[in-house]
Amino acid sequence: MDKKESVLIIGAGLCGSLHAIMLAQKGYNVKLYEKRPDMRTIEMGGGRSINLALSNRGIAALKMVGLEEEVKSLCIPMYGRQLHLADGTQRFSSYSGRDDEYINSISREGLNILLLNKAEAFAKVDLVFNMECKAIELETGVSKFLDHKTDKEKSLTTDICFGTDGAGSIVRRNMLGKTTDLLFNYSQDFLRHGYKELSIPPAADGGWRIEKNALHIWPRGAHMMIALPNLDGSFTVTMFNPYEGDVGFNTIDTEEKIMNYFTSEFPDVLEHMPDLVQDYFDNPVGTLGTIKCYPWQAYGKNCLLGDAAHAIVPFYGQGMNASLEDVKVFSEHMEMGFENWETLLQKYQDNRKPNADAIGDLALDNFYEMKEHVSQADFIQKRILEMKMEQTFPDYYSKYALVTFREDLSYQEAMNLGRKQDNLLLDLCKNTEADKLNLDEVYTMVKALHV
Q1: Which residues are CB-neighbours of 2 under 8 A, at least 6 positions away?
Q2: What is the pLDDT along the chain (451 residues), one digit of tens a residue?
Q3: Interior/surface letters 55-79, b for 16+ CB within 10 angstroms, e for the rest
Q4: Which of 181, 305, 334, 435 has the most neighbouring CB atoms within 10 Å?
């Protein structure tokens, strides 16, 4: 492929910014266009961030472009789930039986700014904000933009266009308009739950009011709440509730109902949320859904990456990691020496699509696990058994660990093996407490699943 070809990336979020960095490092001239203003020059509004969990797959992608050490300064390690149960007790559940395996809480804005600064440092990257893509002629490579600064339209012709413009992707929408030509398949499935962002401010001394190095979960069956730590001592808190019913967002619509709900369901955290009512009314209810589509490429000139190709719900903490890993996998395909973009894009999508589907399905599974199963006896015994297995056998990984800490495995491989292991361990724990099981015998049964 000729590095003199012009490359356009639409969307300067996490995936698009990283993709621009990777391509610039390989010698390509890149135009990176973003419809929003430069987040580095304005105050970002709250309410829709859902704090991000950065783990091995995302870190590997950032390491690929030399940003691993800089990113670490933005991270707070979380070693497990701090469960706040309905009876008022708490229980800590480690993510792994190995001390060096954990996930990291990181600010979306902080990471995006780091990536934008890195991308802008390349002379080969032309970074333009306030430039909204309105349409794309997929066959010709002509993209039409509205410049929000001048309110004028602009046309741009490029050899290759990457759509990293999120779940509402205009690039994907233009592919959808070619359904018959591309045999384009598209599905969008919404949960009957939405989310609302709240906050726990720092303590008076600037520290954290609750355990810093954990992802906090209040599982309540039909609904739940989570909290992730921030560097300034605060926590970003997210409610996940149905829209309707006694605990639905459409029902909890007055100050009295808000206070009654939190007093009943989350009394242990209420004292730490002095701005609860204001946050509740100020911040919108966001939707939660899964988007799948195929193909990801069109005419050898256009390609979707990140949420534009595979938006998922946030319950495995892998949405960002999957998008960043897209860039890493794409880079690896570029190194395979394909003669043209069309072959490269085809090979990339055929390799990556099954793995994107797998993590989308796993994220839905984890939604039910987090809000319901984490407090059930069988699940608790399974987690105890998994911890003992990981502490005893270095080559044993739970399903969660396979997905989160084994970046050498594809999502599809991790899902298939992890589900087999889960079924086996849950069956064992239905009749016998974890402490009474023979670990060597369990290990032998698990290894048989690898065949």
Answers
A1: none
A2: 678 789 999 999 999 999 999 999 999 999 999 999 999 998 766 555 557 999 999 999 999 999 999 999 999 999 999 999 999 999 999 999 998 999 999 999 999 999 999 999 999 999 999 999 999 999 999 999 999 999 999 999 999 999 999 999 999 999 999 988 999 999 999 999 999 999 999 999 999 999 999 999 999 988 999 999 999 999 999 999 999 999 999 999 999 999 999 999 999 999 999 999 999 999 999 999 999 999 999 999 999 999 999 999 999 999 999 999 999 999 999 999 998 999 999 999 999 999 999 999 999 988 877 766 555 788 889 989 999 999 999 999 999 999 999 999 999 999 999 999 999 999 999 888 999 999 999 999 999 998 7
A3: bbbbbbbbebbebeeebeebbbebb
A4: 305
Token code pair at residue 137: 């002629």
Between 3.50.50.60, 3.90.1720.10, 3.40.980.10, 3.40.50.720, what CATH number should domain 6-43+54-60+107-187+289-368 receive?
Answer: 3.50.50.60
Whether the CA torsion 172, 178, 184, 187 is positive or negative: it is positive
Residue that has been written with the tokens 């135009």 in this structure: 31
